[in-house]
Predict the structure.
Amino acid sequence: MSASFGFDLPNNSKELTDKEYVNLVNRIRGNFLSYVSVLDSTLTVIISDLFLRDKNDFALWAKTVFDEDRTASFGTKIVWISRIMKNHEDFKKEIDEKTRVKIQQKLNEIREIRNDFAHNFAHNKNVEPENVKNRIIKLYDFEEGTTTPRLFKMQEIMDLINDPWILEHLEKLEMLTKKIREN
């Protein structure tokens, strides 16, 4: 799980053209969504490894857990992994409650940003100079007939991508799952 999606942002003293700014916003959004894809896949591996003992279990798993050829959403997987950590004896022994709660909170924080990045519109014309200067991503959420702007600091998104904590903990969960399955 060593894939790196973070990169160094241009120094704040560097003035960006509108085009450079739009390209940077698109790159950040794309990299963040790729990062979340890795997290999502890792959750899928952990959950399926825990419940699928052999390939014959897959048909039952698909008919009971998946929804007509659709895999569970990232949010659903977060709920599942949280319940597994809370209720499975081996997970409870290996992962203290504070860490379990932090894993769930961090994944939910990432999920919320992921949803905004995946489902909201970035206005690429008439870019606001203060957003360029302050390295702010402005997205528009169209919900129930209302347009609501959402602001994200580029550096906070990069910090989130570059923080190894959640990946390290998911890797520990994956190793614990493999250990459980070997017994």
Residues 18-51 form the longest helix (34 residues). The chain has one domain: 18-182. The chain has eight helices and three strands. The mean pLDDT is 89.
